[in-house]
Amino acid sequence: MTSNLTRRQLYDLIWSHEMPQVAEHLGISEWQIRQICEDHRVPLPKAAFWRDKAAGRRTKQAIFTTTMDATLEVITFNGSKPIAPLPTVSPAPVRPPAAPKRELPKKARAKGVEWVKVAQPHHALLAVAKELRAKKPDAHGVVITSGDTTPHTSVGFPSVERAIFVLDRIFRDLETRGIGIKLSRQWFTVTRGDESVDFKLSEKVAKVKHVPTDYELQQEARRLRSGGENYSWYWNKAYPEFDYLLTGALKLSMSLWGSHGSRLDWQDRKTFSLEDQIDDIVIAFEERLEADRLRKIGRERERRLSIRADENRRLAEQRRKREDERDALIAEIVQLQAKARDLRAWIDWAAPIEDFETKRMLEWARSRLASIERAVNPARFGDWLREKKLFPEVDPFAPLPADPDLEEA
């Protein structure tokens, strides 16, 4: 049967009922419905839309848009059977309200360490404390110390005494653990034995966008009107781009060199101050010095193992050369014995000859045979071998133990 629907009616139909129900209602297949929606620009719901709706979750429905093409507004269906009534749409399940969050009791904050003015700073801190207290702040209110024996330290004028207190506590706690302090141009240096760790103390500075005043805006407008083509006209504004404000938050930073992944920074937090972390800082210094000591021991052991491996390679090369000399010696002895045997047989063969030239040759051959027999005489092998040092009683080229530490033990 033929029936007509508008685009809006079809939109409401397919967004309120699932596709099998709409197909049965109109008497056409689901594929035909999809094709009609595509031809008449009617958005179709996805499968996720119906899953969310069945689960009671919030769904997002596509917006219905109008069209200026009148031929798309009316849709004609040629169904194979009369239009069937649609099933009643059951309301979506309502999610039960979420259980109220259980508020955990707030932990009482432990009383933090309160700083006080240090009347007599640690002896290693005297020069720094004296310079911090005597130096005037710059235009931004920052006190900066720097010198040949004074580490670079920058703190706000109101934080000078607090910084001295923190450093004094750290110095004294380190001293009780047998750790010394040295001062240099850039760093405070914590030392124990041959190991050292550098650190510095500073105040955090906030970088904020500068809000120009009316007067600054007027000066900038006047500068722009004056024009110019050099770089100063482009860069030299009447007011700065940013303001740098002191935050009052102190920060202690260790040197990155040799850190090997250990913690580097301690600073004021919302729940605890730098003074509350002094014990942790001192422990961190001690742990890093100990880690540096162990790494140094490991490096020295690796160096000893490398030297021992080089020595064993050199000894192996000497043994190889000696084996070549031994082989050459044995080959020479065997060759001389064979020569003596052949020479002896020739002398026996040529002895009956009465020719004077031959007799003189036989005399030389007998002399040569005697020298060869002396060379291969077993009774003289010992002297010969001792002279060449090819078979010593104590082998100077014997391999050494691979681990020199075990040898020393």
Structure description:
There is one protein chain. The protein has 409 residues and is of the alpha+beta class. The chain has three domains: 2-78, no CATH class; 123-273, no CATH class; 309-408. It contains twelve helices and nine strands. The chain has helices at residues 7-16, 19-26, 30-39, 47-55, 126-134, 160-176, 214-226, 231-235, 278-350, 356-375, 381-388, 404-408, and strands spanning 2-6, 74-78, 142-145, 153-156, 180-183, 188-192, 195-209, 242-254, 265-267.
Short key terms for the protein model shown above:
3 domains, 409 residues
Instruction: Classify the beta-strand content into a percent band.
Output: 5-15%
Q: Could you say which overall geometry the principal axes of the C-alpha atoms support?
A: flat
Helical residue percent?
A: 40-55%
Mean pLDDT: 84
Extended strand count: 9
Summed up, the helix count is: 12
Derived structural class: alpha+beta
Give a summary of the structure in a few sentences:
With 409 residues, the protein is α+β, with helices and mostly antiparallel strands.
List the helices and strands and how they pair.
Blueprint: E1 2-6, H1 7-16, H2 19-26, H3 30-39, H4 47-55, E2 74-78, H5 126-134, E3 142-145, E4 153-156, H6 160-176, E5 180-183, E6 188-192, E7 195-209, H7 214-226, H8 231-235, E8 242-254, E9 265-267, H9 278-350, H10 356-375, H11 381-388, H12 404-408
